[in-house]
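Quick one, T. Sequence first:
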Amino acid sequence: MAIVSAMKSEEIEKPGTTVSEASPSERPLDLVHLSKYTFGDRSLEAELMGLFRSQAGVYISRLEAAANAKDWRDAAHSLKGSARSLGAWALADIAEVAEHRDFDDTSTRHADLARVRDSIAVVSAFIDDLMS
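Structure tokens:
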């Protein structure tokens, strides 16, 4: 199920679509969830999105530097939690799949890392567009 929802999200994202043009189901962040999570506090929403945006590279670096299965799982799990708190459901699904992969399968691990990078880029671009 997680892979299906992540794939659907990747298929519907349209380059060049602005925040105002994207329907709620096309957005990489569930803004309704984020608003509920922050009790409608717009400054807190902006702070959380900015924090995610500034930490995005850290998540990728931790996955790249993972020396063993525990490090990989911990990094993917942290990313999953951060994505879920924002309502970045597709990214959270991708991180969850990565979290449960066999660490010793190098090609699958690299493919998961590429999907994480791509999804983080989509969420980060959305945040940048939203905050500009």
